[in-house]
Batch of 2 targets.
Target 1
Amino acid sequence: LAEDDCPPDSQVLGRATWTFLHTMAAYYPDRADPGQQTMMKSLLSSFSHFYPCGRCASHLRLVMAKDPPPVDSRQSLSQWLCQTHNKVNVMLGKDEFDCSKVDERWRDGPKDGRCSWAQDVEY
Ligand code: FAD
């Protein structure tokens, strides 16, 4: 069976979810208004209850209780998500990601233009 015919395992789901979360943060407003901040807080909080990997979700709730997500701006939310993802990376024995490269990875692409097609994607 091709992978696309099967439900996702935790790896496939994890990769897809991080793609969504980092991309969402990359396009969050530079200065979110109070309504947008409330919605983002609520989205992340709900997400930490319903993410369909129980142990991942409870770990995320612990991280969020200690270090609540800053939802005032694109920059702070993107950095928080990067640091949060790094906590998971460390827990799983993976390399940490350099958070200064988060915009390059999730929004702008590398400077050499390798991903220039990404600029055509309309979000
Ligand atoms: P992923 O970690 O999925 O990363 C995808 C891509 O994101 C990478 O290729 C890299 O380019 C980029 N990236 C990596 N780190 C960062 C960063 N810090 N900031 C920005 N971009 C980055 N799995 C478990 O086994 N146990 C858990 O407890 C667990 N908790 C999770 C909690 C959440 C909220 C999520 C979304 C996933 C969780 N996962 C967990 C899944 C796990 O994090 C990985 O998604 C999965 O192991 C696949 O890893 P990967 O190596 O393909 O890359």
Target 2
Amino acid sequence: MIVVKVGGSAGIDYDAVCADLARRWKAGEKLILVHGGSGETNRVAEALGHPPRFVTSPSGYTSRFTDRQTLEIFEMVYCGKMNKGIVERLQRLGVNAVGLSGLDGRIFEGRHKDSVRIVENGKTKVLRGDHTGTVEKVNTGLIDLLLGAGYLPVLTPPASSYEGVAINVDGDRAAAALAVALNADALLLLSNVPGLLRAYPDESSLIREIPATDVEAYLEFAQDRMKKKVLGAAEAVQGGVKRVIFGDARAGEPISAALAGAGTVVS
Ligand code: ADP
């Protein structure tokens, strides 16, 4: 089993990802796709007059502050436009894909964090009314049913809280939890960069290999949201996933290239 996560940043070629996925699926490989949608969510939120608000935690992690209205816009884009756009591409390529959020069948479950500590202008503050959380539990029942019946699952945040409230969760870490739950052979984290760069944005500074025992040491090279990918990779390999690869989804055959070792390989 291979879990492929494709991000939501500008420049990602979803046609290329879906074509590669379809070829491999038809050749008999078991795959699951998890996707993001942050870039499009920002655009739609601006257009709807509720611009995104990104906050930084005291430990330096950036996240989207998700009030109820933001959550609804997030769902429109992630579960609607992005998810159905990917499912449509795969259907056109002859793959019977089924698109679901983490709420459906409680595939992704975790604790709802209603308040978030942030640093703004050098001061620490607490913001309430946040609909975020982290995936702590993956319920694979529905996924097993789908795979067993020959459907390719296409999954996206949000997740469900233990109380059944929708929560915005990081897609990379959700994909990592899924890869652990399914005992996947590999987790691919595909985005609009060649991999983890030692000196971002210099693409010639690609880090080719990271030993599984030392992933956290590489957090120092990651800025902003790249930190979540490194964290997800650490969680996946610690949970028994053999290989995590940060790969490029901008062109070519992104899944095959990553599996062939292009990008940053954590093993
Ligand atoms: P996605 O939504 O595609 O999953 P993110 O925007 O969450 O991707 O994270 C990828 C982004 O992280 C890149 O587009 C890049 O701007 C940023 N980044 C920060 N530090 C690094 C780094 N050291 N190497 C590569 N990308 C980095």
